[in-house]
Structure prediction request, 287 residues.
Amino acid sequence: MGLKVYISGKLYDKDDAKVSVYDHGLLYGDGVFEGIRSYGGRVFRLDQHLDRLYESARAIRLEIPMTKEAMAAAVIDTLKVNGITDGYIRLVITRGAGYLGLDPRKTSNPQVIIITDRIELYSPELYEKGLAIVTASTVRTNANALSPRIKSLNYLNNILAKIEGVDAGAPEALMLNSKGEVAECTGDNIFIVRQGTVLTPPNDAGILEGITRGAVMELAAQAGHAVREAVLTRHDVYTADECFLTGTAAEVVPVVKCDGRVIGTGHPGPITRDLRTRFMELTRRGG
Ligand code: PMP
Prediction:
C-alpha cells in the first residue's frame, strides 16, 4: 500500500494528493510550513512545532482553518495510517486558491497538507567525520524585508545559498546576514564551541529559531556546559574549537571545515559528540 497524504480533512493516495494551480502557495510561495520528526512512534516536540507554525501564519496574516489540537490529532492519525513510527512530517499550509494577483483577500480555503515519509539527510559517515561547509555569497534575508523567523513557503533565499553549496561540493552552506554576521545555514542552525562555551547566533542575527537549537541549548546547560547566544563572525567559526549544526532533519551534525579552513582538530569535538549523544537520547525519551 502506498503512502497517504492528508489534505484538508481527507486522505489521498500520494499520486492523487494535489492542490489547485491557482493556490497562492504555488503562485507566490504564500504559505507556511513545518518539518517535524517522529521517533519510536512519538512526535518530537510537536507542541513547539505547532506553536511556531501558528506564529508564522499569524505573521503573514494567514488563518489556519483548524485548532492546534485538531492539527496535532491529524498529524498523529496520518502517521498511524501510514504505519510510520520513525519518520519525517511535513506540514504545509497554503493561502488557498484565488485569482492571478497578489491580494490574499481574493483567495479562499487555505489548504492544510500533511505529508509523512522517511528521511535521511546526511550519510552516517558524515556524522562520524563531520561536514565541510562553505560560506554562501547569498545573504540571509533582512528581517526588515521578510523575517527569517517566519517559516514561509518561500525558501528561495535559502535555495540560492544551497545551490552555491552544491556547486562547491558542500552539503550545507553558511549564510551571513546583511551586516556580515553569521546567521545560520540553509536549513540548519549553527553552533560553535570556544574554550568550553557553546555559542550560537541570537534571533536578531536573522535566523529561524530552531526547535533542535532550543533542545540542544537546554541539553548543553543540563550537561554543565556554559551556553549562550552571541553575535558571531566568520572569524569566530574559523577559529572555533568545535562547530556543529542543528536541525530537525540533520539532528546534531559536526562541522570540521569551513571555506577550506580546518576547525579545531579537524575531527568532531568532544562537546559536539556529547551533545549529539544527549540529543539522540532525548529523542528516544520522546522529547
Ligand atoms: N534554519 C532554517 C532556515 C531551517 O529551515 C531549519 C529547519 N527547519 C532550521 C534552521 C532548523 O530548525 P529546526 O531545528 O526547528 O528544524
